[in-house]
Amino acid sequence: MDFSSIPRAIDSLQRRHPPLDAAILETAEKMRNATDPELLTRAAERLLEDATRWESLAVGLLVATELLAQTKKGAVYMEGPRVPSTDTAPVYTLPELNEEQQTQLCNTLHRISMEHLEHPEPRVRTMVAKAIAAYVVKSSLEVRQGLHSRLIGSIHQHIQQGRDDASSKYSRSSMGALDDTTGWRALETNWQCLASQISAMGSDYWREFPCTDDMLADVEYSCVTHVNRHVRAAGMAVLEQAVIAAAEHDDILQGPLRKTIKAVIRTGLADNWSQVRLAASVLCRVFLITLQTKGDTLDDIFPVLLPRMCLNRFYLAQGVRLYSHETWKLVFPTQGLELVVQYLPAVVRYYVQMCDADNHAVREAACQAIAELAVRLGSHPEHRQVLADHVSTLLQALIMCFHDESWPVRDEACMATGTLCKCFPEDCRPEFKLLWARWTEQLTDQIWSVRRDAAVALGDALDAYGDEVWKLLENDLIPKILPAARDQPAMTAAEYKAHVNDIEKHTGAQLYSCGSLAPKLGKNRKDGAGRIGCSSCGIDRPKAPWEATDGCIYLLKELCIKSETHAELNDNVLLPLLTELADVCRVQHFPQSDELRTTLFKQLPEMAHALGKQRFKALYLEVFLDLLFRTIESRSASALAQHAARQCALELAHLIGPAIFRARLADEMQQRSFDEIMREEKSGSGNMMDDPAFSPLGPPGLIGSAPFPH
């Protein structure tokens, strides 16, 4: 069934199997283009009285609700934990009802709603919730009180009874999943009905209904303790409307309701389900803005909510992350940094706690948030010392995440430790030996983005410790990993394809979690290590030698970037390293060699920009030209390698000038290939890599994505 508009709902009725009664379908069809309000009202009531099928009842509720809502310009929002739109225009024009017709339809809707408040079909119950918002304001005080009493009683009863008995339908192994998805009778929709009543009545709700301890206990239980995420989100929607309705009252948000909302937001902003986390974020924004408008100091709120609001700006789910970022700008337009400093102990405690959270997305966000603290406070002349007192604690939390089996967590921990060392080098020095081992291990990881970010962390370490790190890089690390691709075991493309497509090698193998090299099944946990996304395991695939060389490419790029501020990184050092790199990348004896060259050609333009136009043109361009055009002209190179090589040639040509670049090419074949690349660019054939959003797989900026405003 499609309930997005009345015409689509009518069309859905015609397609139902088994077909509905012919008289019902005829009645529904009459409503499609009806302009007579009396005809529409009678037709809607005819559908509402049909108890044989839930579909006709739901369409009747939809039509009656739209008739009343468009007459009173009401806004009914039941689509999820988001701020409702103020645009309430119907999909098509409906006739306006007179006073008598409105009263009659309200009475009918109330009677039908009370009959079907706990209808077995959840879509009918959702339509009932919307209907309540449409008719409740037009109803008498007696009707509103009766409805409210029925809702509160039904909610309390369902909380006491628990969910539906599913033992006859589902196995014991299915019960855990069902607890979080289905089978909770009308508890979720009853909360939605109550939210609709509060939304429709506005400030009058608190004049007619007191804030009772029993109701607050039920809503807090539903939002904080209840196992079903939909129930938790629905309870938060009730509190959201309660806060909006209390905006015109001076005392309601200072009493027990305030305590309940604090407890709910505190838990909801840390919920494992993004749906609930977003619902809590909406409630948090409404709550804080309402209190700020009333001149509340929020001194009791900030120590609890501020750390969670900070962390959610880095949460993996985009809706939560963007909404939290916007909330931060709305609530703290100028004083965000100062408030973080004021409540820094609470912020640090929460970040450290979240580094050991069960949810791997939370651990990732905690690492990013710690890095932000290091950058924003570590570079501030007044606040630097305040954070310095907590650096040791934060570093230990990051080291724990450094041993995580979820590679995105390790990735973020690697970046964050590099940032922390750069901002507080002496405070981090006691752990340098351990950090060096972890950084260099990450540089040869199986995941390309982990290798890239490990190189960034080593670049930060070079800034922090200077000559000490450079000697380790020059004498120990680079000589070991730069030529490693030469040691990669030989394998033909046919052998590699046969290995990948061998059914026996993959049948019955362990299933793995997203964002992790750990299996989906199992509940073990290694001592001293962070948990992973779905479970815990030490299974890992062996590292390949070529991956070490691939990591070295990222490292050499970082050295080129740092050469401007580090005198030891002169041409006498960099030129031999890049010459050897170009030579190593010529290897052809294994299929992944194309991936190695792809990485090189993607990083080379950035190296060239870092070294400078004149310097690169004079010394480094000739080193890579032959390899670059061999890849462009190769018939056996992968499409990705060829695309990266062509894009690299284009970017280098723009850096030093197309004519100069063409003149450096060795033969006419290379010049023809280059001319073809330039013609393609002029014709506008897909230079997608100039788009910063070309690859959605690259992680967002660590710091720039969500800084503390001002």
Automatic annotation (TrEMBL):
The lineage of its organism: Eukaryota, Sar, Stramenopiles, Ochrophyta, Bacillariophyta. It comes from the Eukaryota. Residues 223-467 form the Dynein axonemal assembly factor 5 TPR repeats domain. This is Dynein axonemal assembly factor 5 TPR repeats domain-containing protein. InterPro entries: ARM-like (IPR011989), ARM-type_fold (IPR016024), TPR_DAAF5 (IPR057978). Residues 680-710 are annotated as: Disordered. It comes from Fistulifera solaris. Pfam families: TPR_DNAAF5 (PF25757).
